[in-house]
Design a protein that fits this description.
globular, alpha/beta, seven-stranded mixed β-sheet, four-stranded antiparallel β-sheet, 7 helices, Rossmann fold, 11 strands
């Protein structure tokens, strides 16, 4: 995103600095010169939610956990696909992310954080996973660029054997752990399978209309 204007910056707890920038009508959250997320490349973040909800079809009062909020594309897509009986908990560890959502990006946010089905928790998603026992029908993770921590080294714990076992314990029978990644990782798929998940790998376009580069979503089912 060239010619951008700095809107704000934030420190990721136990991590690094990220910046919110704007170029005309588009926003991006940057790590140095790396674009972590943007308003013009979001189709795969939406697919993380819509494809999860498709797989949950028919379940009464589904309980979802999303970590983290980002720019809210996953949350808004989930709310659009779920019924009134659903509940969606969103874990976001960076307070400024929510301040930006309610401030400069409020038109994009479209009041999704105020939806009656949404519970916002300003804490590490790992804490919520560790505290749950068969509490969720789905856990959706998009806290970094994939299984290797980029913004925060502690994120690696989510994708460790211990972290994945905690996620399995937090899921109900046939629950889904859905993980977004910027690129494939065959070793991580093997890692998921060794923990006991049944794994499906889906490639999703970054742009709408089947355009743009491919990102990866893993659907790990608790059998």
């Amino acid at each position: 995103m060239s010619g951008h204007e700095l809107i704000g910056s934030a420190m990721v707890p136990d991590g690094i600095e990220v910046r919110l920038v704007r170029s005309e009508d588009d926003y991006a959250i940057m790590l140095e010169d790396n674009e972590l997320m943007s308003t013009d490349l979001h189709a795969s973040e939406q697919a993380l939610a819509t494809l999860t909800c498709e797989r949950l079809a028919g379940r009464a009062a589904p309980q979802l956990l999303i970590g983290g909020y980002g720019m809210g594309f996953t949350l808004r897509a989930a709310l659009g696909a779920l019924g009134d009986d659903a509940s969606v908990t969103v874990a976001e560890i960076v307070p400024e992310i929510i301040e930006w959502a309610r401030g400069p990006m409020r038109e994009l946010t479209a009041d999704c954080l105020d939806d009656a089905r949404v519970v916002l928790v300003m804490d590490d998603v790992a804490m919520l996973i560790d505290a749950a026992q068969q509490g969720y029908d789905a856990i959706l993770l998009d806290v970094d660029n994939g299984p290797s921590g980029l913004t925060r080294q502690l994120n690696d714990g989510l994708y460790s054997r211990t972290g994945l076992q905690a996620a399995m314990a937090a899921l109900r029978q046939n629950g889904l752990l859905a993980i977004w990644s910027a690129e494939p990782d065959p070793d991580f798929v093997t890692h998921l399978e060794k923990v006991g998940f049944k794994v499906e790998e889906v490639h999703a376009n970054a742009l709408p209309d089947c355009e743009g580069g491919h990102h990866v979503i893993w659907f790990a089912e608790k059998l």
